[in-house]
Amino acid sequence: MPLRDAFRPLPPSQAVREARRERRVMLRRSIAGRCPLCATKGIRSGCSTISDRCPGCNFALSRERGYLSGAATVATVVVVPSAFQPFAVALWLWVGLAYFRPLDASDLSANDPQSGRDRPV
């Protein structure tokens, strides 16, 4: 057996493949707003509230005190940057101009049609 074959990963077992498939199925169900275990509708009431238990399989959706704070963190990481990105860019431009690299003539002439250049470099 060549040495390179010794370091080749083994193909996943049937149990590993089944676990990966089950995770994908549960993810699709969760994104669709259904119970991740039994795919029953009705775990949400409105946009921002979720039932304590699944009406189909009685699975506890509210696991323990503070469990759902991770969901709030995910929402913050996904929604806040996209909502405030233009503000953050403008603020960073100001910081750069005010403290790191002051404005000079080449910054303003880069878009000037008289200079013969169309875009900043």
Main features:
4 helices; 121 residues; mainly alpha; 2 domains; flat
Description:
This protein is mostly helical. The protein has two domains: 1-62, no CATH class; 80-121, no CATH class. The protein is built from four helices and no strands. 2% of the residues are buried. The mean pLDDT is 78.
In terms of topology, how is this protein built?
Layout: H1 3-6, H2 14-31, H3 69-100, H4 105-109
Structure summarized in a few sentences:
It contains 4 helices and no strands.
Low-pLDDT residue intervals, each spanning 5 or more residues: none
N-to-C order of helices and strands: HHHH
Beta content: under 5%
Number of helices: 4
